[in-house]
Amino acid sequence: MRPGRPSLSLRRRPVRWERQRPTWREARPGIIADALDRALARPSGNWYVVGAVLDVHRDRPLSATVAGREIVVWRAADGRLVAGPGVCPHLGAPLAGGAVRCGRLVCHWHGLALDGAPFAGWEPLPVHDDGVLVWVRVDAAGGETPLDAPVVPPRPERARSIAAVCTAVGVCEPEDIVANRLDPWHGAWFHPYSFVDLTVVGTPERGGEGAGESCDGGGGGDGDEGFTVDVSFKVAGRLVVPVRAVFTAPEPRTVVMRIVEGEGRGSVVETHATPLGPDELGRPRTAVVEAVIASSERRGFAAARGAAPVVRRLMATAAGRLWRDDLAYAERRWLLRTSGGFPG
User: Residue 268: pLDDT band by 50, 70, 90 thresholds?
Assistant: First the structure.
């Protein structure tokens, strides 16, 4: 499959789900584990994704939790983002229930107003707006050497793309989410409603037995650091869109899928995992914040951008369906891993 592949194709000899080629021999646990270890070793600078930029409104804060710490994010009078602890320094009220007035966050218990500057023991947290997602740096949670800005992967030009964000929560840890995304072999088996004809043509395995093809994904710039996959996205019936995609992990809580050949070349799906803290049973909870940033050189894409609010909802719905499945994968992995029964 090369750059000249058709954007829309008809599967002439579709293979039924149970008759497709098994991928379990190729999906060796060691390859996935090595890729996960490399991802976990990369620096994050203590930055965590807490939501979508579009979820930060002028009149109320965005509420989030990072490793058990309440966080609030709001817009100052000049439009910039402000972030800090979600506990009022007066009597501990949840600032998430407050209102934003003239760029100040007003507590709904007694009216204490914060403008983003330090006040009565309340200290702001570094915050970053990347145009799609909101990142907050929580040094107490990360424990790494802080970075001035988060590791944001390259994206399509904002003026020529549509971005949608979906969020889901599961009982697992961030590494279980990352491990799920670093297993591309499960796609056509676990998500047959979305993917068919999936072949992993290159892996990040280095020099070991059975190492995959050394492939940069047709200009993806990821070299042997990523999983290179040929796959077709289902449209309707036997109509599919064949693409080549590369999966990489630029930091320990992020996996990026980038289309490097075929329709939508340059489009990315960013999966970010943020630890929330334990639930009432003491089990870890993790939020998956996934950003789908789609781009196309087709003329019709301009019309799609004109209907961006509707398109975003459709994109987020599709991503949410996939994550209902993938959270089951991640939760199962955590359960077996912590009970000593994980075979990987």
Answer: very high
Tokens of 70: 């309440």
How far the first Cα of the chain sits from its last, in Å, is 32
pLDDT at res. 215: 38
Q: For residue 295, give every residue at least 6 positions away whose Cβ sits within 8 Å of its Cβ, in sequence order, or none.
A: 156, 157, 160, 161, 162, 264, 265, 266, 267, 301
How far lies 314's CA from each of 11, 52, 307, in Å? 24, 16, 11
The structure tokens listed for 58 are: 């002028």
Sheet holding 69-75, edge to edge: 62-66, 69-75, 81-85
What value does the CA radius of gyration of the chain take, rounded to a whole number of Å?
21
Exposed/middle/buried for residue 17 (C-beta within 10 Å: 0-12, 13-18, 19+):
exposed
Helix (H) or strand (E) holding 324: helix 308-339
> With 0-12 CB in 10 A as exposed, 13-18 as middle and 19+ as buried, what is 318?
middle
* pLDDT (0 to 100) of residue 222: 40
What pTM, to 2 d.p., does this model score? 0.91
Contact 61, 98 (CB under 8 A): yes
Q: What is the pLDDT of residues 80-127, one digit of tens each?
A: 999 999 999 999 999 999 999 999 999 999 999 999 999 999 999 999
Helix axes 29-41, 174-181, angle to 10 degrees: 130
Q: Which of 296, 302, 277 is nearest to 48 (CA)?
A: 277
CA 161, CA 180: separation in Å to the nearest integer? 26
Check: CB of residue 234 under 8 Å from CB of residue 193: yes
Give the DSSP letter of residue 63.
E
